[in-house]
Amino acid sequence: MLRIVHKLRCGFAKMTVREAINSAMAQEIERDQNVFLIGEEVGQYQGAYKVSKGLYDRFGKSRIWDTPITEAGFTGLSVGAAMYGLKPIVEFMTFNFAMQAIDHVINSAAKLHYMSAGGLKTSIVFRGINGAAAAVAAQHSQCFAAWYSQVPGLIVLSPYDCDDARGLLKAAVRNPNPVVFLENEIMYNEAFEVPDNVMDKDYLIPIGKAKIMREGKDVTIVTFSKMVKFSMLAAAELEREGISCEVINLRTLKPLDRNTVIESIKKTHRVVTVEEGWGQCGIGAEICSIINETNAFFHLDAPVVRVTGADIPTPYAFNLEELSFPKTHNIVEAVKLVLK
Amino acid sequence: MIFRISRSCFSSISVKLPPFKVHHLELDQLPQTTTTTSAELLAYYKSMQLQRRMEIACDNLYKQRLIRGFLHLADGQESIYEGLHAALTFDDCVITAYRDHCIALLRGDTPHQIIAEMMAKQTGSTKGKGGSMHYYKKATNFYGGHGIVGAQIPLGTGLAFAQKYNKKPNVTLIMFGDGAANQGQLYEAANMAQLWHLPAIYFIENNLFGMGTSIDRASANTKFYTRGDVIPGIQIDGNNVFQVRETLKFAKKHCLDKGPIFIEAMTYRYHGHSMSDPGVTYRTREEVQQQRKTRDCINYVKNIILENKVADEHQLEEIDNTAQNEIDIAVEQAKVDPVPPSTELTTDVYVDNQNHFIRGILYKDSILPKSQ
Asked: Could you give the ipTM of this predicted complex?
């Protein structure tokens, strides 16, 4: 039974991103016997962030596996199970901890199909929270979007809202390749109206396709995950000043939907990229390079402006943390810069 | 080393096994003898000779620069692979690191495929895209072929997990060396295997050196068969094909009944760690020669054959020549095989490769998804 928070009106319900991920996992575990969830505290504890709440009670210990605190071990174990033919959903409590297991994500999973000339594959999802939370300081706040996006053989997804979370996670589980699924802790609590079709057990979003959240004609804002929210707020604020922003939610970081970005640039001629992660070699840097290398460059009226996290390990103090990551006002300022 | 053999009847030959060392097990759970037959002895002899000749051929090819990169040879350790092949089935999974050619051979690749792979030819086991360290065969449950020391251990534990998940009456043999035996991920994986009663055999090929570092310099506890802590363990002579075979049969039963087990097989590699290691800076030439003279695993079987008049020297020499011939033909064929076509550069990155963007060295050389 899917728990629907608040049936608003016919055809819609309201749910949080947490519930969206939970319901997507529940449906996929129900659908395919080979799918199982594995990670720290995912079972009896109901999930460190309660994302897997209720799954252990519903599916039991044969489908929901609590592990010791041994990322390298259980990630390698999951990749091995995937090599045999199972379909693990590996939960990292945060992607910061996945650094202990990253060899298995990259060397054991991502490269395997190529090294084996197609002989072996791993249909596996690595999911967990990515990027900054609140007041968790330097070792718990890193965004890994750029690191994983670089690797051939991986698919990298990053949902923003419930629609994204459900459609992308289900697509990820059903995909035969290894998928890194970057969630956001702050977004877990955000509630969205969800049309009935999104709750369907076969609702899938195409991988590699960005979504235009808001159409506009003056500036293209390219972003993903939590930064979509701030970009939308910035766009609303700028609208009141007569500036029309087109907001693109990438949804997939690898393969990145260059065509949607290019088509938008042909319309607006100005681009702002927004990401929470550090600027060097980041997603914004990749967007700049993509534009540079394609005919989109000749449609630009101004250089691309990037909005990124500050180049620092994350501080603890609230006032300093506020200065570490992009906010709505930074995006507003960036749009005005690109229009100057 | 020759153990007393008795021939109780025309076809069955009794072999006394070397002593075992056990950890959390009783010695009387393990056999003291086993039996073999003429046919089986000759089959083991021939197969181990084929392995040996294949490895030596690779050494030669490397020196001729026809094999490049890393090359880790297993000559000296053939009885381990022969023993595991005799004890397990193709429904049992095997996974190892990069000293994997002999396992690839026993799990179904031909000498031609194996050598062609190392010679980077299209006809190689993985189309020339893997090389010496990356052999795989799903059909016979051989999962590689891994370059990162210790990575195969949790992976293998996952195979065992999947076998149990699917309620298979099968086990996974997870092979690694004395060097890898200090890896943290071994203990992470073995801990879960014990907790969840996974059918995992943790098999340590102890050839006394992790690259150039002796076991005494690397391991505070060199009794690797005890390193599983609460997990039972057995130490055996890896150069005795019969002891390997019987121990793995026991291990399989144990795993399916109770859970994981550690097996430490004492062995010796004649080559250095890899072709860039002469293998005599951390051990003496005399030691290597002594091992060849007194502990060679093929000579052990040869002596049983000769003592029991299963065959004579001349017949064995014929088998040697047949094996050498098979390897020579494979090498000559591989030499004339084509290299992979350049289109193979960008295939197999993804399962559904046609749906993905693969960047070329220049953007203009990129492969676009089929839909674009």
From this structure: 0.95
